[in-house]
Design goal:
- It is a single chain.
- This protein has four domains: 108 residues, Immunoglobulin-like, CATH 2.60.40; 107 residues, no CATH class; 152 residues, no CATH class; 190 residues, no CATH class.
- The chain contains 22 helices and 16 strands.
- It has a five-stranded mixed β-sheet with strand order 10-9-11-14-12, with no helix packed on it. Strands 1-8-2-5 form a four-stranded mixed β-sheet, with no helix packed on it. The chain has a four-stranded antiparallel β-sheet with strand order 4-3-6-7, with no helix packed on it.
- About 9% of the residues have low confidence.
């Protein structure tokens, strides 16, 4: 459009807008004006025309806040105006004609509709329409059109107003409200530069520069106390609580991985049922497992089915090992391996899977566990990659350990898991139990017929399984624990962790005292006794990490998981006539308690032994794999106790139920081997009959 004036020569005024009206204008852009050789546009072809540049002006926000720039003093003629972000100006800005005494207007509409929206979230993560002090305000910039904006989201914190963002990202900016009244967040979305193609017949003068579209978001923050206080109201003191750090992500990973390899829920039983019963392929199965599935076919005789069960168990553990946090889809009524509601309570904030993964990455720093890094650095100073630890078989155990502890096997063995399956295998072979009376002799083994191929393989594999003697020697070396029984001869271990039980029980006792202090809201408990007790247990556990560390616990876990699966089968349940009304947590447990009753073993339910194994494993893993020796902050120990409080309290209760010893006794701490207490309780039980 041209308008007559008395001034000569003519001018061109160029404005750059976002295409959604005049609300947003581009500032800081480069505009170029090119003089056309002819006085007419007839035959004009931008693709073959090489322009003569007559003028270029840089527009800056301080000079042209309205996004416009004027090119004065232009002689009459035909011109081409280019906005340097648009490599094909003929499509958006056709050539214009400047007449003497006229002002010619040119407007670039970029088709970039940008706006910002604000939403409000409380500290608990709930949306609200009335933001108050302590709530979060989230600012979302929405843009889209011809500049290639993607759907990727980038979360940023608004620290100060006036920040800019590349529009190649959609983003959410969050800020905590700290004052009341009218608030304005100023933003500027950057227009990306577009490089025009070079070569003959193209515009080559355009420079890759950024222009800005200024935006602003306004909201009002309210005081949390919006009315004068009056009447009756309660005043409560909050409990002392340690602040969450990224170390908590290691605790979450331990809970996640130990639940993943558990028997119930979406863990081991579900995996084996899919492989062995439904014959459907599990995710990421190995070639060995696939081959055995194919070879088994309809051949149900011999040991092939048991061999498949053993291979599938090892594959299952391989798939679930590693320092990671992962969710699994769980069938109805199954427990999920990642309880976000519980983790939110531990972290004292609303968390999701992505947040937990980010925190775990921050803890690991892109490397192995800090504790393992420290051990390798101390043992092999100056060790470079590609040296002694270049082989994956060696490094995988250090960089990605499997979260297994042998104490899980110890407590399940004390609970008579192994003895129960051994008694059934003897009866399956028609072997009478030692002694005058065999409680299983009068039971008809016909219900076991559908399971005969599995039991046959289990019996034939006896020479390949760990002996009880081998396991007991390892219990001695790891924890100084012992088993008593006819199958356990007098042992002479070369190395024994005789101080472990004292250090571990002292830690449990110290934790119980800490929990009592935490309950008193007028007290800030001392965390240093906890820290020192954690260091002591950490050092003793490190001393037990010898040549068999990792290998024997792995083999023992494979064997006992298979024993649990066999005992959980309906054939075994029908054979033993187990109780159906008791609320057991896992399907194999009723059969063990039934066997205890038949054999006259301990009358303490397997539930408590199972809890000791599960909770004890998680507690010791959190102590073993964190670098407690370099920690000097009591808050770290407090955070550990707060994070593991349910497991610690559960272990204390289960230990009292099994042994009769209360480790929370304020007067003394019992260091006697649990096997001694169990033997005494069994003697008292037998005398009372």
């Amino acid at each position: 459009m041209s308008r007559k004036t008395e001034s000569r020569p003519g001018s061109i005024v160029v404005c750059v807008r976002d295409g959604c009206g005049d609300e947003s204008v581009a500032i800081g852009a480069y505009i170029s004006v090119y003089k056309f050789d002819s006085d007419t546009f007839e035959g004009f072809d931008i693709s073959t025309w090489v322009p003569e540049e007559v003028h270029r002006v840089d527009t800056k926000p301080t000079e042209k806040p309205n996004g416009c720039v004027t090119f004065p003093g232009l002689p009459e003629g035909c011109y081409v105006v280019t906005y340097d972000h648009e490599p094909q100006p003929v499509e958006t800005t056709p050539p214009v004609k400047v007449e003497a005494g006229c002002i010619t207007d040119v407007c670039f509409k970029l088709g970039l509709c940008a706006c910002c929206e604000v939403t409000y979230v409380t500290a608990a993560g709930q949306p609200t329409t009335r933001p108050q002090i302590g709530d979060f305000v989230e600012v979302t910039v929405k843009s889209g059109a011809s500049i290639g904006v993607t759907e990727e989201k980038l979360k940023m914190e608004v620290r100060t107003p006036g920040f800019t963002l590349d529009p190649n990202y959609k983003f959410t900016a969050a800020s905590v409200l700290t004052k009341t009244g009218r608030q304005i967040v100023e933003l500027a979305i950057l227009l990306p530069p577009v490089e025009p193609a070079g070569g003959s017949g193209s515009i080559t003068k355009a420079r890759p520069v950024y222009a800005e579209l200024p935006l602003s978001c306004e909201y009002t923050a309210f005081d949390r106390i919006s009315a004068p206080l009056g009447g009756k109201f309660d005043v409560r003191l909050l409990r002392s609580r340690a602040s969450a750090t990224n170390t908590f992500a290691l605790w979450t990973a331990i809970r996640n991985r130990t639940k993943a390899i558990s028997f119930s829920g979406s863990g081991y039983k579900t995996f084996i049922d899919r492989v062995l019963c439904l014959r459907s392929r599990p995710p990421a199965e190995t070639a060995v497992l696939e081959r055995q599935l194919s070879e088994l076919g309809d051949h149900v005789y011999g040991t092939a089915a048991y061999d498949l069960l053993k291979t599938a168990t090892e594959v299952f553990l391989l798939l679930e090992c590693g320092v990671q946090i992962r969710e699994q889809g769980a069938p109805p009524n199954d427990t999920r391996i990642l309880d976000l509601e519980y983790e939110s309570k531990v972290w004292d904030r609303v968390v999701d899977l992505e947040f937990l993964k980010q925190q775990l990455g921050g803890y690991l720093g892109g490397k192995a566990l800090p504790y393992i890094e420290r051990v390798i650095a101390a043992a092999f100073p100056g060790q470079q990659k590609g040296g002694q630890f270049c082989d994956f078989v060696l490094t995988s155990r250090a960089t990605d350990p499997c979260f297994l502890e042998l104490i899980w096997n110890y407590w399940h063995e004390e609970g008579m898991l192994v003895q129960s399956i051994n008694a059934i295998s003897r009866r399956f072979q028609n072997v009478r139990a030692p002694g005058e009376r065999d409680p299983l002799a009068h039971l008809e083994i016909d219900p076991l017929r559908p399971l005969n191929n599995i039991l046959w393989g289990y019996v034939e594999d006896e020479r390949s399984r760990l002996s009880v003697k081998r396991r007991v020697y390892e219990y001695h070396h790891h924890y100084g624990l012992n088993l008593y029984g006819k199958a356990v001869p007098d042992l002479r271990p070369a190395d024994n962790r005789s101080k472990f039980l004292e250090a571990f029980h002292n830690l449990l006792h110290t934790a119980s005292e800490y929990f009592k202090a935490v309950q008193d809201t007028t007290v800030v408990p001392d965390g240093y006794p906890l820290l020192h007790a954690l260091r002591e247990v950490h050092l003793i556990l490190a001393q037990g990490a010898h040549n068999q560390f990792g290998d024997l616990p792995w083999t023992a876990r494979v064997e006992m998981l298979m024993q649990q699966w066999i005992l959980a089968r309906p054939e075994i349940r029908d054979f033993l006539q187990s109780r159906a009304m008791v609320p057991y947590r896992e399907g194999w447990m009723p059969q063990v308690d039934t066997m205890k009753t038949l054999q006259g073993w301990s009358d303490v339910t397997i539930t408590h032994f199972r809890d000791l194994g599960v909770y004890g494993e998680q507690i010791l893993l959190s102590i073993r794999y964190h670098n407690w020796n370099d920690i000097n902050d009591e808050e770290e120990a407090k955070g550990w106790a707060d994070s593991w409080r349910p497991e610690l309290q559960g272990y204390l209760h289960a230990y009292r139920a099994v042994t009769g010893v209360d480790l929370t006794n304020p007067d003394t701490v019992d260091y006697t081997l649990p096997s001694v207490h169990l033997r005494k309780r069994l003697s008292m039980q037998q005398r009372a009959r």
